[in-house]
Design a protein that fits this description.
The chain contains nine helices and four strands. The protein is of the alpha+beta class. The protein folds into two domains: about 130 residues, NADH Oxidase; about 35 residues, no CATH class. It has a four-stranded antiparallel sheet with strand order 1-2-4-3, sandwiched between helices. The longest helix is centred in the middle third of the chain and has 25 residues. It is globular and about 60 Å long. The two termini are about 25 Å apart. The structure holds flavin mononucleotide (FMN). Flavin mononucleotide binds next to β3.
């Protein structure tokens, strides 16, 4: 273990081996409030460009809504059977109001005058609010959703909680069912979390990854 590690290296590596994209959940097992709190922290603490956090997280609990979402998620049973379903939303267009909201938050949290952040605000307005077309902005925020997704999946693995990153769904149908149309937010990617079913054959499959030498090059 390296001397400054918060979690021993072996534990991290074993969690990475242990995790897999779960295909069948044990619907009777629920994530405890304590673990759920840590998982939420992983979403909240995910980094974002400039720290603007152009993401929101919808946690879908209502069984009826879950069933409807499953219909537009290739019928995947994980949508209804997992303990948690998290829909990661990304902002369609980051605007000056978003920048202002963030500047106010920095001033409050760090107890500094807003005026001292004028340069930072102007830069963000220039580069992000004014400098991006709606298409570029939507693509930029959507990519950031995947950072939050990664944090969530890794944190789940460290807690020995199963998870599935999911792109197998119809985003337009999600936006409709979740009432997002016209809200400025859209569904970027989703994830389920819970506990693997004993019958999920996938858990015994050997992990398929290319050799380190093929994936990682040092120059
Ligand atoms: C962005 C993304 C979308 C995915 N979508 C689905 C999905 O819709 N359904 C599913 O069962 N697995 C999905 N997966 C899981 C991958 O198939 C899986 O991560 C990959 O085969 C590697 O296997 P492992 O995660 O078990 O190591 C997705 C993974 C990622 C990263």
């Amino acid at each position: 273990m390296s001397s400054r590690a918060a979690v021993p290296n072996e534990q991290i590596e074993s969690a990475l081996q242990w995790r897999y994209a779960t295909k069948k959940y044990d619907a009777t097992r629920k994530i405890s409030p304590t673990d759920w709190n840590t998982l939420k922290q992983s979403l909240v603490h995910a980094p974002s460009s400039y720290g603007l956090q152009p993401l929101r997280y919808l946690v879908i609990e209502t069984p009826d809504l879950r069933a409807k979402l499953r219909e537009v998620s290739w019928g995947q049973t994980i949508i209804t059977d997992a303990s948690k379903l998290v829909v990661i939303l990304s902002k369609e267009k980051v605007n000056e109001t978003d920048v202002e909201h963030y500047i106010e938050r920095i001033a409050t949290v760090r107890k500094i005058p807003k005026e001292s952040l004028a340069g930072y605000r102007d830069m963000m307005v220039q580069n992000v609010a004014k400098g991006m077309t709606p298409e570029i902005s939507a693509d930029w925020t959507r990519r950031q959703a995947y950072i939050a997704l990664g944090f969530l999946i890794e944190t789940a693995a460290l807690l020995k909680i199963d998870a599935t990153p999911i792109e197998g769904f119809d985003p337009a149908a999600y936006n409709k069912l979740l009432g997002l149309e016209g809200s400025g937010w859209r569904t970027a990617v989703i994830a389920t979390l819970g506990y693997r079913h004993a019958d999920d054959a996938t858990q015994s499959y050997k992990k398929v990854r290319f050799e380190h030498s093929e994936l990682i090059e040092t120059r």
